[in-house]
Write a structure and sequence with these properties.
The protein has 283 residues and is an all-alpha fold. α1 crosses α4.
């Protein structure tokens, strides 16, 4: 691996290249926060896809694309005289130090080279400094965020409104858990899952679409809750199932192309047989 000096040189080179492109490239010159935002979302999803596939080369490549966007926004901020990359990085380091009192002393915020000081001086600081497990650290974070000058005003205000619904449900529940609002025994959640499923089935039988939609949301939310309690990530799980369905359906489609018969002319029984073949091939 590279030295810290080499890493800093590479980061500085990226900033230099971005400066030149902003000055000389017609496309880069015309970009704004608004025009870049859709591309940033796309690049983020491409990174997530590479991570899900476990592709190290693509992960490195997509990380570069995302990092370029982060630097680009900081560049625009500097042009507008509001902030630059220094402000972004310093504020992030300060936030990390402030949120890790079990590692750093709060007085280290704002200093370029913080030293680890694991014990606080006030009762509150000593309490936070006792965190020894990942769960304890997460619980501390939620309380510490509420103490920050420009931090979250409420526990759930830290959940971005634009998050995909499945991830948002998980984050909402996780944040509530960190302040003690959770099931005492994880097994109890299954009664709630069964209750929500029964309510969904009842509304579906009535044919009430609006009420069925509400109950479907409650049921999915309860399943996400169960996944969280068993330390399973529902978004990752669903993405695996998506990939599995695509593989198996592609197998059916490839067979259709080889046989010269369109999928629309195949019976459900034929497709089911091919589906099971694809499933067997994966085992």
């Amino acid at each position: 691996m590279h030295t810290r000096e080499e890493q800093m040189q590479a980061f500085g080179r990226l900033l230099d290249v971005l400066d030149q492109l902003r000055e000389k490239c017609p496309w880069d010159k015309k970009q704004t926060n608004e025009s870049l935002r859709p591309n940033t979302i796309e690049e983020t999803y491409e990174l997530c896809d590479a991570l899900a596939r476990g592709d190290r080369h693509d992960t490195m490549k997509e990380l570069g694309d995302v990092m370029m966007h982060l630097c680009f926004y900081a560049k625009i901020g500097a042009e507008q005289q509001s902030f630059d990359i220094y402000d972004v990085l310093r504020q992030q380091a300060d936030k990390l130090i402030f949120r890790h009192p079990h590692i750093y002393h709060p007085s280290q915020v704002g200093k370029d080279k913080p030293l680890p000081l694991p014990y606080g001086e006030t009762d509150s600081e000593r309490e936070f400094a006792q965190a020894r497990t990942a769960d304890e650290v997460l619980q501390n974070w939620e309380q510490i965020k509420l103490k920050e000058k420009d931090g979250n005003k409420t526990v759930l205000s830290g959940v971005p409104a634009a998050l995909p619904s499945l991830i948002k449900a998980y984050r909402i529940q996780d944040k509530a858990r960190n302040v003690g609002f959770d099931w005492q025994k994880r097994e109890d959640v299954w009664d709630k899952v069964r209750e929500e499923l029964a309510e969904l089935e009842a509304e579906l039988e009535k044919g009430n679409k609006e009420a069925s939609t509400n109950e479907l949301g409650d049921f999915i939310f309860s399943v996400v809750n169960a996944a969280r309690l068993y330390k399973l990530n529902p978004d990752n799980a669903l993405e695996r199932t998506n990939a599995k369905f695509i593989r198996r359906f592609n197998y059916i489609e490839q067979h259709s192309l080889r046989s010269g018969r369109p999928l629309t002319e195949m019976s459900l029984e034929e497709m089911d047989k091919l589906w099971n073949e694809a499933k067997s091939n994966e085992q």
